[in-house]
UniProtKB/TrEMBL annotation:
Protein name: Short-chain dehydrogenase/reductase SDR
Record lineage: Bacteria, Pseudomonadati, Planctomycetota, Planctomycetia, Pirellulales
Gene3D superfamilies linked to this entry: NAD(P)-binding Rossmann-like Domain
Assigned protein family: Belongs to the short-chain dehydrogenases/reductases (SDR) family.
Pfam family of the protein (one): adh_short
GO MF: oxidoreductase activity
PROSITE patterns: ADH_SHORT (PS00061)
């Protein structure tokens, strides 16, 4: 599959800053006719509207609130591409006092939020010809870092769900992309202490739309991600990307 954003409509979660804002800007620079900026508070998208006018349409969207997601799916009934960029991170190790609470919160947003979004928007994408679904998953979905162990676990789970969505939504012609950034210069990376060698958010945005055009499932946008992706490539090609007959695991 291949998807070109030109003259298409996108929805980007967490669009008001960081990687999300860069994705909005990249989509518009590549000719998107409209982008829904899906944010928890509509006012946070005001600067995007000032810059891009009516090509940006703010919609309320909370990954923990099914009703906001369902309402957004009705509002954005013309959407061709959904980019689920929003997520949360707690700096919790595996035996930290707050590790279980942190994991429950991260699973609710990073995994259940993805599932809520996919469930609401899959029929919309199907009705509009298939389109695309992009999930931001991080390098920690394949390599755990101890100080963000619970976040790593949530992203590993979201990566697993993304693989299932790729196979499920292929039947309706929806292209699914799994994006695995390394350190990116955002508030989240700064909070986690991953600032050394951090790439700009625009690096991620560009690779997302390149992956859509090229029909890639994985996107490894920055230098650290590319290093891990290269090491992971053999497994991905032989197992994750392979057209394997579905069987129940032993």
């Amino acid at each position: 599959m291949s998807f070109d954003i030109k003259n298409k409509t996108a929805l980007v979660t967490g669009a008001n800053r960081g990687i999300g804002r860069a994705i909005v800007e990249e989509a518009l620079s590549r000719g998107a006719k409209k982008v829904y900026a899906a944010v928890r508070t509509l006012e946070s998208a005001d600067s995007l509207v000032r810059e891009f006018g009516d090509r940006v349409v703010p919609v309320q969207f909370d990954l923990q609130d099914q009703s906001t997601i369902e309402t957004a799916a009705k509002t954005a009934s013309d959407v061709d591409l959904v980019v689920n960029n929003a997520g949360v991170l707690k700096t919790s190790g595996p035996i930290s006092d707050d590790s279980i609470d942190s994991l429950q919160f991260e699973i609710d947003v990073n995994v259940y939020g993805l599932m809520r979004t996919a469930k609401a928007f899959a029929p919309v994408l199907a009705a509009n010809g298939g389109g695309g679904l992009v999930q931001l998953n991080s390098i920690v979905s394949v390599k755990t870092f101890a100080n963000v162990a619970t976040y790593s676990a949530s992203k590993a789970a979201s990566y697993s769900i993304t693989q299932a969505l790729r196979d499920t939504l292929a039947e309706q012609g929806t292209q699914v992309i799994s994006v695995h950034p390394g350190p990116i210069a955002t508030d989240m990376a700064d909070h986690a202490g991953f600032t050394d060698g951090a790439a700009p958010p625009s690096t991620v945005a560009r690779d997302i739309f390149d992956a859509l055009l090229e029909g890639r499932f994985h996107a490894w946008p920055d230098p650290m991600a590319q290093q891990i992706g290269e090491a992971y490539q053999s497994f991905a090609k032989s197992v994750v990307d392979a057209d394997m007959q579905e069987e129940s695991p032993a």
